[in-house]
Each structure stands twice: as C-alpha cells, then as structure tokens.
Design goal:
Length: about 270
C-alpha cells in the first residue's frame, strides 16, 4: 500500500449494539490496531453510540465502520435515531459526490440491513428461523472481482448471527445505480427458500456484509466457551451446533481467513483512494 502523504487516519465506529454486550466492537478495535501497526500508520478511532445516545460522526473522519446490533431493522423505521442515521448516510453520499478526498464506509449485519433499506436493494424481512453459526458464503462474479474480497476462496466462511435477511433484489435499483450484489448465502437445494444476499457494494465508496467479517477465532472461541453463553447456545441450538462452531472457529481456512482479509482489504482500499 502506497500513501501519498503521511497523515493521521481518522476512523469513526458507529456502534449500533444499543449497549448490549458483544464481541463485535472488540474485534473491530483489534483489527484497526493491528492494521495500523502492520502498515506503520497512525490511526485514531472514535466511537459513536448511535441508538442509545443518538451520536453520529461529522465529516471530519476519513473512514466509517458501522456495526451490527440487536433487534429488528424494520421496527426502527420512523425513530429519531434512524432518521438521524440516514441523514448522516446522505451526508457521506453528498460529500463523496462533491469533494476530492472520498470517505469509505463499511456496513456490518444490522447496519447492512438498514443500508439495504435506504438504497432499496431488496426485501428486508424476518427469517423463518435464526441463522447462528459459521456458514459458507458464495461469491458472485462481481464479488470475485471485488478488491475487498481479494484473497478469499469461493466459498469462504463467516460468522452469521441474524433473525432478518435481505432477499428478492430490486432490479430497478441495480439498473439505475452502481449497486452490485457480491455474495449470497449457502445453497440449500433441499430447502425451498430464496438465498439471501450476503454482501453488496452500494457504490464506489460504500460496501456492506450481512455476516460479521470482524469476528476473530480466539475471541469468539473464548466467548462461546463462557459458561452462560455455552448454556444459551446449547439450549437454543443443541450441543452439536456449539461443538461445530468451536471446531470451525479454529480452522485456519475459515474464520481466521475472513478476519485477516476483509476489513484489512477495505482499509487498504479506503486509505489508498483517500
């Protein structure tokens, strides 16, 4: 990665976890610290509590990462925090339309679902059952050309934890805008349900994933082995699911690969194009 000037990179993390305990924030922080160290960069981060405190970053930041979070991406429609969130999103779009130094944004899980609503990507709806575990993600042709997915296999594996999904792509949106679907969920021939959209490039400077690219193997493994979390997973999904997650988290070709590539690739692209 070649940088044109030696400057401090300012990253805003938009926290949509609504105060709930999670591993996502820690994982994002760790990725930013490791990326800065590896590339000998100065990265300053600031966190914004979007849902509880209605906090949002201004346009002084270079990069935005918007997190996952609990609850429905539909029930927040009309709420003050969502109106402000969409207002912030539009400000980023306006900035990128007129200013030389572009601001890149990554949307994760809940934020991805909100962005899909905002850009009218498809039908955001509740799943028949909760998706929870480590699952294969399949790249489409545009995904195979996407720099954020550089170095990834097809399929690759990611942590998926959601009650909602984005299906039925809106053809008019993809015809009128630069949006492209990059990846979809695993093929299940025995299940008569449409495969959900798992990653979208909304435009040149905004991308998002339904899954959690920030999840790391060590932290997630420790998290799942905490007595309370282990009991909850086993009660809801069975011991076989819990054991399968532990095994897959420690597979170097699965979660470790995704953690090492996606957000770091995004950061390289964002800083290189800044």
């Amino acid at each position: 990665m070649v940088r044109k000037e030696n400057k401090t990179i300012r990253v805003a993390i938009l926290d949509l976890y609504q105060g709930m305990a999670n591993e996502g924030m820690r994982c994002i922080r760790d990725i930013l610290v490791l990326f800065a160290e590896k590339n000998k960069l100065t990265i300053v981060t600031e966190e914004f509590e979007v849902r509880l405190k209605n906090e949002l970053p201004d346009m002084s930041y270079d990069i935005f990462i918007s997190t996952g979070g609990p609850g429905s991406p539909l029930d927040s429609e009309g709420s003050d925090w969502e109106k402000n969130y969409f207002g912030w999103l539009q400000k980023v779009l306006d900035w990128n339309a007129h200013e030389k130094h572009k601001k890149h944004t990554f949307f994760i899980c809940h934020s991805f679902q909100l962005a899909c609503r905002y850009f009218e990507i498809g039908n955001v709806c509740k799943r028949k059952s909760t998706a929870f575990g480590v699952f294969p993600i399949h790249l489409l042709n545009d995904g195979k050309e996407e720099l954020v997915f550089k170095g990834m296999k097809d399929p690759f594996y990611a942590v998926d934890s959601r009650d909602y999904q984005v299906i039925q792509p809106n053809a008019e949106t993809f015809w009128k805008t630069p949006a492209t679907v990059l990846a979809i969920e695993k093929d299940r021939p025995h299940v008569p349900l449409e495969r959900a959209i798992m990653a979208v490039r909304f435009n040149k400077y905004m991308i998002g994933t339904q899954f959690h690219p920030e999840a790391d193997a060590v932290g997630m493994s420790m998290y799942l082995q905490m007595e309370e979390k282990k009991r909850t997973v086993i009660e809801n999904y069975g011991e076989a699911k819990w054991q399968s997650m532990i095994e897959q988290l420690n597979d170097p070709d699965k979660i470790m690969m995704t953690n090492a590539h996606l957000l770091p690739n995004f950061l390289k692209l964002a800083i290189g194009n800044g």
